[in-house]
From TrEMBL:
<dbReference type="InterPro" id="IPR014730">
    <property type="entry name" value="ETF_a/b_N"/>
</dbReference>
<comment type="similarity">
    <text>Belongs to the ETF alpha-subunit/FixB family.</text>
</comment>
<dbReference type="InterPro" id="IPR029035">
    <property type="entry name" value="DHS-like_NAD/FAD-binding_dom"/>
</dbReference>
<comment type="function">
    <text>The electron transfer flavoprotein serves as a specific electron acceptor for other dehydrogenases. It transfers the electrons to the main respiratory chain via ETF-ubiquinone oxidoreductase (ETF dehydrogenase).</text>
</comment>
<dbReference type="InterPro" id="IPR001308">
    <property type="entry name" value="ETF_a/FixB"/>
</dbReference>
<keyword id="KW-0285">Flavoprotein</keyword>
<keyword id="KW-0813">Transport</keyword>
<feature type="domain" description="Electron transfer flavoprotein alpha/beta-subunit N-terminal">
    <location>
        <begin position="4"/>
        <end position="187"/>
    </location>
</feature>
<keyword id="KW-0249">Electron transport</keyword>
<dbReference type="InterPro" id="IPR014731">
    <property type="entry name" value="ETF_asu_C"/>
</dbReference>
<protein>
    <submittedName>
        <fullName>Electron transfer flavoprotein subunit alpha/FixB family protein</fullName>
    </submittedName>
</protein>
<dbReference type="Pfam" id="PF00766">
    <property type="entry name" value="ETF_alpha"/>
</dbReference>
<dbReference type="InterPro" id="IPR014729">
    <property type="entry name" value="Rossmann-like_a/b/a_fold"/>
</dbReference>
<keyword id="KW-0274">FAD</keyword>
<comment type="subunit">
    <text>Heterodimer of an alpha and a beta subunit.</text>
</comment>
<dbReference type="InterPro" id="IPR018206">
    <property type="entry name" value="ETF_asu_C_CS"/>
</dbReference>
<dbReference type="Pfam" id="PF01012">
    <property type="entry name" value="ETF"/>
</dbReference>
Length: 316
């Protein structure tokens, strides 16, 4: 069976949930192989195997972490040339989209970004994308021998079928161009105990309607174990960091539940959250556009609606 490469998404060896989602998709297409970049593959081997990785290509070359994305693209290109996988899957993100694009150019592969589903078709790899803020569902077939696809987190239900998890160390020859720029330092973001918006099963988001007071939004998020998102209006006002912005110029999320509080539902906001499985909105204006695409709409003041909802959830 043809291999399917999955670039492992991790932070210092801590696997992000989307890696398990990609391995679930990979099993539908062929034999899942994880590509792990960084030290400490032994610590993640069991987890990757538990989610279906038959093989784990491990590259601990420090240049892959200290150089920009071109180095990772070169590693993957060398694996594609050697293994000829049927597909290479990435979690959608700014860096991975660039790696995927470089890889597709280098290997002459077909590229689709931000897929919400991937399946084996009769003529190649079929992908589904939700575009123009969900106005259209686009289905495409990649007929090139290797499909390169970035997949939005939370697009599929994890369905682990354990694999062998055989580790194969990989060396990489990097071009001069790939190592020309080196990262000399990085400043860690202020960490939060809450999950990342792109990973969370539930996102509670606040907009201009909070008037800068996110306490009620955060309290509901905390009882639900949710991430906190924000509209651009809230971010531009300096009420919440850009890393939490949902929308066209922020992050794209597809949680099980999205609760929009004091957010009007502009098309640019919708672009980042409309693939959420269930959408709930709290807004004082019954005519707000967000009510056109919610599953449950509450016309009311978020400062009156959220505290009793938070208290009720806390009792469960
Ligand atoms: P508003 O549109 O002002 O809505 C606030 C809502 O809160 C209103 O509906 C109001 O009725 C309600 N409200 C007020 N008080 C309360 C209360 N006490 N309780 C409950 N409800 C209340 N926006 C994004 O969000 N993400 C993006 O990534 C993004 N990218 C953009 C890119 C471009 C190129 C452009 C042009 C715009 C972009 N925008 C983006 C901006 C977008 O067009 C909207 O301006 C923005 O989403 C509005 O944010 P908001 O809903 O919080 O504010």
């Amino acid at each position: 069976m043809s291999e399917v490469l999955v670039l492992v998404d991790h932070v210092d060896g801590r696997l992000r949930k989307v890696t398990a989602e990609l391995l679930t998709i990979a099993r539908r297409l062929g034999s899942p192989s994880a590509v792990y970049i960084g030290p400490g593959v032994d610590a993640v081997r069991e987890d990757l195997a538990g989610h279906g990785a038959e093989k784990i290509y491990a590259c601990a070359d420090p240049r892959l972490q200290t150089c920009l994305v071109a180095a990772q693209a070169e590693l993957l290109a060398s694996l594609v040339e050697r293994i000829a996988p049927v597909a290479v899957l990435f979690a959608s993100g700014p860096a991975t989209k660039e790696i995927a694009a470089r890889l597709a150019v280098r290997t002459g592969s077909g590229l689709v970004t931000d897929a919400v589903d991937v399946a084996a078709g009769t003529d190649g790899i079929d992908t589904t994308q939700s575009v123009f803020a969900g106005t259209f569902i686009v289905t495409s077939t990649i007929e090139a021998p290797t499909a390169v696809v970035t997949v939005k987190p939370n697009s599929v239900q994890i369905d682990p079928v354990p694999g062998q998890g055989t580790v194969e160390p990989v060396e990489v020859q990097l071009s001069e161009a790939a190592t020309a720029v080196r990262i000399t330092g990085s400043q860690p973001k202020a960490t939060s105990a809450r999950p990342d918006v792109t990973e969370a099963e539930i996102v509670v988001a606040g907009g201009r309607g909070t008037n800068g007071d996110f306490a009620a939004v955060e309290a509901l998020a905390d009882v639900l174990g949710a991430a906190v998102g924000a509209s651009r209006a809230a971010v531009d006002a300096g009420w919440y960091p850009h890393s939490n912005q949902i929308g066209q110029t922020g992050k794209t999320v597809s949680p099980r539940l999205y609760v929009a509080c004091g957010i009007s539902g502009a098309i640019q906001h919708r672009a980042g959250m409309q693939t959420s499985k269930t959408i709930v909105a709290v807004n004082t204006d019954a005519e707000a556009p967000i009510f056109e695409y919610v599953d449950l709409g509450i016309v009311g003041d978020l400062f009156a609606v959220l505290p009793p909802a938070t208290a009720a959830v806390a009792k469960v």
